[in-house]
Amino acid sequence: MISDHAKGIRVIRTAVSAEAETIAALHRRARSTYYPDGLPDDGVDWTAAWRGAVERPDGQVLCVVEAGVIIGVASFRLAEGTARDTVKLYQFHVDPARWRAGVGTALHTACLEQWRADGRRAAVLDVHVGNRRAQAFYARQGWVPDPEHPPAEGDHHLSLRYAVDGE
Fold it and tell me: What is the pTM of this model?
């Protein structure tokens, strides 16, 4: 997907493993915005995790590139224990400096196009309970609380669901 944008050409394409460090840095910037006491050290090597996501044969990582810079990223694949027609959106991040510029909406649209092309009927995701901005974004896109996974006391994430086929 390619679109004109006031700051240059915006391209949405599949990420490559050599971009893992850049993607991990974007991920860190985005995640740090919803932790009021600072980003906790979760012990994860996020560069390696992103490289693994990019290289997985059963998943895909899309990135938004503008003027040669990655400004958004989404990672999805089939999840264990879900129906074959259900995809899980594991990561979805836009560089905070680019919020409210249409990047997330364009990336979400590209994900939907891929899911439809892959024959997926539903999508699921988990969003951090403190990430109100992301929750509002997903609600605007049509995501709803997943009735199969209601929140339990003390959960740090909410499960959301999207009807890819519009049903």
Answer: 0.88
